[in-house]
Inverse folding.
């Protein structure tokens, strides 16, 4: 199977500002997904696991979205395994379909967003100036939604054209490639995709997929189930962490907006597992934002509040020391909307 670059052309899709799926439809299709896939759903110093991973890592990445139905379902699927991923939407599509609140929600769940040009352009067919303008336009569009310019770029079809050397100096981005491209846009059998990934398997592998495909949901569910059972974890591409993203995201918020934040690390201290991160609500500028947590599907409880600098750190107790636990965190909105955004989930190892 070729791995030199996805050749998929972006599909034409209906547009709609602030598209949110019909909840009943999402719930119904999400309930059917596991059954259709054929796999089960699945001292005092902290040794943080956020930057150096002690287990094999896979970097899932998704191009060409967001899709009005499939992307929200994908986000829920990733949460169910405590997985984080990197998304590369075309600027035109995300600007038409998502607003800042929806985009911030993706970031708060621990994922990253990178540049994929404005209209999925083949940069090898453009002059250097035209290619730079195309990529810069996409960065400006993403900044309007996130508050910051992206730090990573994925070229459509893998064609960077004449601007490779100018990505960093002129646009402030690194190039995000991939090591495995199953080309699921061709609708191959799922087992063929899994066999292909096994042939490309290595620690740190970067898998290229598309969040505009129904088949992708089935493929991702199988990947998450199989590799999680083997001890793999799923993290964002390191180069997609934009410098100053936190302060820029906070600066976009006004009173009444839902909180934003992120789980940044987890680790062991004094025999307990701790989570660390930050969350900010413009209605509580001095901190004190409540955090709601659930462990392995148990009843959600308030475990604490953010400090004055908006950081949080708290221990997590697993029901059994012999099983892993899925820990999910929400920031409790102090505003009138009452919408508690998710800060994502993390699957913690057994004690």
């Amino acid at each position: 199977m070729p791995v030199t670059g996805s050749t998929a052309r972006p599909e034409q899709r209906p547009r709609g500002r602030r598209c949110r799926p019909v909840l009943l439809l999402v719930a119904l299709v999400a309930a059917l997904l596991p059954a259709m896939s054929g796999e089960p759903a699945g001292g005092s110093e902290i040794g943080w696991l956020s930057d150096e991973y002690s287990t094999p890592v896979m970097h899932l990445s998704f191009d060409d979205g967001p899709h009005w139905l499939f992307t929200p379902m994908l986000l829920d699927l990733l949460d169910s395994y405590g997985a984080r991923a990197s998304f590369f939407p075309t600027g035109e599509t995300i600007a038409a379909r998502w607003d800042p609140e929806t985009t911030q929600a993706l970031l708060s769940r621990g994922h990253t967003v990178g540049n994929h040009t404005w209209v999925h352009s083949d940069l090898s067919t453009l002059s250097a100036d035209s290619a730079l303008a195309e990529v810069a336009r996409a960065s400006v569009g993403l900044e309007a939604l996130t508050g910051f310019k992206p730090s990573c770029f994925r070229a459509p079809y893998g064609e960077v054209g004449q601007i490779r050397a100018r990505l960093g100096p002129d646009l402030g981005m690194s190039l995000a490639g991939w090591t495995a491209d199953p080309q699921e846009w061709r609708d191959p059998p799922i087992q063929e995709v899994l066999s292909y990934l096994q042939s490309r398997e290595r620690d740190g592998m970067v898998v290229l997929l598309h969040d505009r495909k129904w088949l992708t949901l089935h493929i991702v569910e199988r990947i998450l189930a199989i590799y999680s059972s083997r001890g793999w974890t799923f993290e964002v591409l390191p180069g997609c962490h934009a410098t100053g993203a936190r302060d820029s995201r906070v600066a976009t918020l006004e009173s009444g907006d839902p909180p934003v934040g992120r789980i940044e690390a987890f680790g062991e201290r004094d025999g307990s597992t701790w989570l660390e991160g930050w969350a900010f609500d413009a209605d509580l500028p001095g901190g004190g934002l409540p955090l709601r947590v659930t462990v392995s599907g148990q009843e959600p409880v308030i475990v604490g509040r953010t400090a004055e600098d908006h950081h949080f750190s708290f221990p997590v107790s697993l029901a059994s020391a012999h099983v892993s636990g899925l820990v999910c965190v929400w920031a409790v909105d102090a505003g009138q909307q009452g919408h508690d955004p998710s800060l994502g989930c993390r699957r913690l190892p057994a004690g």
Observations:
- The longest helix spans residues 128-146.
- The domain at 255-348 is CATH 2.60.40.10 (Immunoglobulin-like).
- The two ends are 40 Å apart (CA to CA).
- The CA atoms of residues 263 and 277 lie 4 Å apart.
